[in-house]
Structure to design on (326 residues):
């Protein structure tokens, strides 16, 4: 495989759970529990899973908004935990994030122009006229008139605010952007405009994305490969649209079978039961209480994520059987 732009190696984020009783044993919430994946330069890597599976925490660790307490994060071949303050400042130019609700990250008292110009000031980029030009160009690239620089966040529609959120992520000319549920709150027609804009920008600027969403249709539309998380772990990583790369993990198959439009992936398995608590995850394979193919081995031994084809990895003892049952 080509060298990864960014790589998560057994990345983990565990939170201590406050004790409710004095003699109670301290518990740990395993939000992300040893997740590994590589994203190639210019690739769009989708990340999906049910609510609480750890996908957003994983994205936030990749942009260092949340510090991992296990594993390594490697960017362009370097472990970023060992970077100096100066190197980390440089890295922050390269790695950006677009949130679901850009409104919360926009200062309501400041104009859009101020919001977009501020990171340029922090990083000492250009003089005032040059920064203003860059703000105007970036607004145009996200489909907004440069006049939007003088507007305030409350004067914008949801779609316009998301375009500003994208402009804010682009202004420092990053290489890698985490896009976290960025179209989830938008109307369907606006969603497709924003998705097309993201695709166009990715191609024009050679960007690399981690695209996080609970919407499987959206993720399959935009991604080159998709990672499926379950209870803080990676269940499967598969290439999109590759013939011969069938979904293999019983959880992935059931998840995609539940979506009407992902017809090519329909099969008989349906997802039963609730996601267990990440404070008390099941032994062995965390999916075993819900899995129709679970065996005794699954209840005691956690499967490793292993390569099963180009760009395709699966974490299941019985994936070959899963492929036969359809
Ligand atoms: Fe199901 Fe066992 Fe595979 Fe886990 S390892 S997904 S329980 S078959």
């Amino acid at each position: 495989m080509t060298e990864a732009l960014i790589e998560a190696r057994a990345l983990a984020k565990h939170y201590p759970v406050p004790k409710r009783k004095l003699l109670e044993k301290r518990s740990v919430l395993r939000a992300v529990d040893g997740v590994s994946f590589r994203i190639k330069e210019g690739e769009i890597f989708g990340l999906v899973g049910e609510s609480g599976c750890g996908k957003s925490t994983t994205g936030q660790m990749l942009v260092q908004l949340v510090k991992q307490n296990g594993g390594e994060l490697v960017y362009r071949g370097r472990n970023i935990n060992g970077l100096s303050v100066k190197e980390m400042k440089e890295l922050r130019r390269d790695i950006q994030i677009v949130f679901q609700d850009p409104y919360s990250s926009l200062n309501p008292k400041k104009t859009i122009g101020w919001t977009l110009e501020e990171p340029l000031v922090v990083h000492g980029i250009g003089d005032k006229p040059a920064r203003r030009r860059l703000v105007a160009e970036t607004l145009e690239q996200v489909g907004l008139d440069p006049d939007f620089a003088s507007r305030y966040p409350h004067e914008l529609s949801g779609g316009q605010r998301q375009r500003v959120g994208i402009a804010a992520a682009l202004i420092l000319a990053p290489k890698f952007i985490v896009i976290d549920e960025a179209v989830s709150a938008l109307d369907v027609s606006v969603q497709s405009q924003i998705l097309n804009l993201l695709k166009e920008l990715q191609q024009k600027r050679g960007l690399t994305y981690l695209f996080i969403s609970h919407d499987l249709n959206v993720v399959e539309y935009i991604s080159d490969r998709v990672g499926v998380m379950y209870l803080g772990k990676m269940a499967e990583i598969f290439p999109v649209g590759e013939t011969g790369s069938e979904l293999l993990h019983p959880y992935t198959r059931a998840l995609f079978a539940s979506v009407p439009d992902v017809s090519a992936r329909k099969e008989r398995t349906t997802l039963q039961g609730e996601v267990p608590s990440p404070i008390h995850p099941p032994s062995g394979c965390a999916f075993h209480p819900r899995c129709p193919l679970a065996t005794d081995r699954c209840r005691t031994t956690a499967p490793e994520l292993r390569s099963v084809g180009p760009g395709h990895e699966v974490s299941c003892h019985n994936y070959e059987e899963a492929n036969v049952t359809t």
The CA atoms of residues 144 and 160 lie 8 Å apart. The chain is about 30% helix and 25% strand. The chain has a mean pLDDT of 90. Residues 249-250, 285, 287-288, 291, 293-294, 298, 303, 316-318 surround iron/sulfur cluster (CB under 6 Å).
